[in-house]
């Protein structure tokens, strides 16, 4: 347990420094927490500004003793060993959740999803690689159970895959591959044809490139 505590401390310190001392996003992966005790929970619980918490492959079997974080909006608990009792706990303690991922756990029954009705702000849920996904009518049933839900397993209600863009990409998308704004390509070509003879020997003007 001492080694686990030290590993958690190191992650918190490193990520807090990377976020200029204000820890709002904590990502812990591969640390064998198993179950939280008061010491491990307090390491995280002292950071009440946390908005996003990710605990992936941490061998969590239940959420007993889990840190109380009143401002949490995003919770990722992928690749653990959690069953429906975890959903009950989450629904009681994290009322501001908008995004919840329980992918690759042991959720197996529709009844286990019912408590999520209490999370009025929950818009995105990931249950991929859980036994429940094999039940008949799974996809539509989850949307029925959780009315606020907009995205399930990275798909919208119509079953269309959600495409996520990186920050700043929208601005770059306003420009085509040649650097002009969408819809302006024809005008640019016409201008180039009219001025081609006059500007043949002049330097090319710089164009705005797509952001990568």
Automatic annotation (TrEMBL):
This is Uncharacterized protein. Residues 159-212 are annotated as: Disordered. Residues 167-202 have a biased composition (Acidic residues). GO terms for cellular component: nucleus. Belongs to the ANP32 family. Keywords: Leucine-rich repeat, Repeat. It comes from the Eukaryota. PROSITE patterns: LRR. GO terms for molecular function: histone binding. The keyword Cytoplasm does not apply. PANTHER family: ACIDIC LEUCINE-RICH NUCLEAR PHOSPHOPROTEIN 32, CHROMOSOME UNDETERMINED SCAFFOLD_118, WHOLE GENOME SHOTGUN SEQUENCE. InterPro entries: AN32, Leu-rich_rpt.
């Amino acid at each position: 347990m001492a080694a686990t505590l030290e590993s958690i401390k190191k992650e918190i310190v490193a990520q807090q420094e990377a976020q200029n001392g204000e820890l709002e996003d904590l990502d812990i992966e591969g640390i064998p927490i198993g179950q939280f005790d008061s010491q491990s929970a307090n390491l995280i619980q002292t950071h009440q500004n946390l908005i996003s918490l990710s605990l992936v492959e941490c061998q969590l079997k239940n959420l007993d003793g889990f840190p109380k974080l009143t401002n949490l909006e995003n919770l990722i608990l992928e690749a653990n060993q959690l069953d429906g009792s975890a959903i009950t706990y989450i629904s009681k303690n994290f009322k501001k959740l908008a995004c919840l991922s329980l992918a690759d756990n042991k959720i197996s029954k529709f009844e286990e999803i019912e408590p999520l009705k209490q999370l009025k702000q929950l818009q995105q849920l990931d249950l991929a690689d859980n036994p429940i996904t094999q039940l008949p009518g799974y996809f539509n049933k989850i949307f029925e159970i959780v009315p606020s839900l907009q995205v399930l397993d990275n798909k919208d209600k119509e079953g269309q895959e959600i495409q996520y863009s990186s920050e700043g990409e929208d601005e770059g998308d306003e420009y085509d591959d040649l650097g002009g704004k969408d819809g302006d390509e024809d005008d640019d070509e016409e201008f180039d044809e009219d001025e081609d003879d006059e500007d043949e020997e002049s330097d090319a003007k710089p164009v705005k490139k797509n952001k990568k």
